[in-house]
UniProtKB/TrEMBL annotation:
Keywords: Lipid metabolism. This is Delta(3)-Delta(2)-enoyl-CoA isomerase. Its EC number is 5.3.3.8. Belongs to the enoyl-CoA hydratase/isomerase family. It is an enzyme of class 5 (isomerase).
Length: 238
């Protein structure tokens, strides 16, 4: 479902397997486990890159799995389970002690968009990447932490309106102009190289992890409040 590679102080988390990388309970659990593994061994100068293989970065929550439950009540229960599980991943990334970079080489839809946006930096492939919040078209409301994440990470109210209320499918150059991503590159290879180059520049600063974490949390106080209770529950279970 995902792999974790370490190259010196650089950690590369790659979504593998199913081409759409839908965020099923299994994949969410694997991502969370990988994040905790990185967190346990990261040092000053460490950086995390999250990427994927194929046409999609992630096509959102595993709706086919939810619908396979056979009835509406059970389907909604499965959907709620995935939403709450993904909340743990976002909470982990927001409280991560090192810089994080997401590499969107394909489509990032709904919860896949949320996963990418939860990182500190977001790079995108110009010729194939697409960002899309599908909830408005599917007739579903956003979970609370989705909404707060968009307010925290996308500064323009007009851009948020177009993404959330307009269901706009945003491509690379548009995403840069809207202030959603840091840059775009043509081709998967060049995009990957750009991510490593950025990671190496960030890692060379050798920031203190605890300071980095606290400063990030200070930037997104509302998001931390929404995620704070679940962070406590996670710690209580460990």
């Amino acid at each position: 479902m995902c792999t974790l590679e370490q190259r010196s102080n650089l950690f590369i988390l790659t979504l593998t397997g199913n081409n759409q990388h839908r965020l099923s309970p299994t994949l969410i659990a694997a991502i969370l486990s990988a994040l905790r593994q990185v967190k346990s061994v990261a040092t000053s100068g460490s950086v995390l890159i999250t990427n994927s293989k194929g046409k999609f970065f992630s096509n959102g929550l595993d709706l086919p799995w939810a619908l396979a439950a056979g009835c509406r009540v059970k389907a909604l229960s499965r959907l709620s389970q995935m939403v709450e599980s993904l909340r743990h991943v976002v909470a982990e990334l927001v409280s991560f002690p090192i810089p994080t970079i997401s590499v969107v080489q394909g489509h990032a839809a709904a919860a896949g968009f949320v996963l990418a946006l939860s990182h500190d930096y977001m790079l995108m492939r110009e010729d194939r990447g697409v960002l899309y919040m599908s909830e408005i078209d599917l007739g579903g409301c956003l979970p609370d932490y989705f909404t707060v994440l968009f307010r925290a990470k996308i500064g323009s109210g007009l851009a948020r309106r177009d993404v959330v209320l307009g269901g706009r499918k945003v491509r690379g150059r548009e995403a840069v102009e809207m202030g959603i991503v840091d840059g775009v590159w043509g081709g998967e290879e060049r995009l990957g190289e750009a991510a490593v180059e950025l990671a190496e520049r960030l890692g060379a600063r050798k920031w203190d992890g605890e300071v980095y974490q606290k400063m990030r949390e200070g930037l997104y106080p509302e998001l931390c409040v929404v995620l704070g209770a679940v962070t406590g529950r996670i710690q209580a279970k460990l």
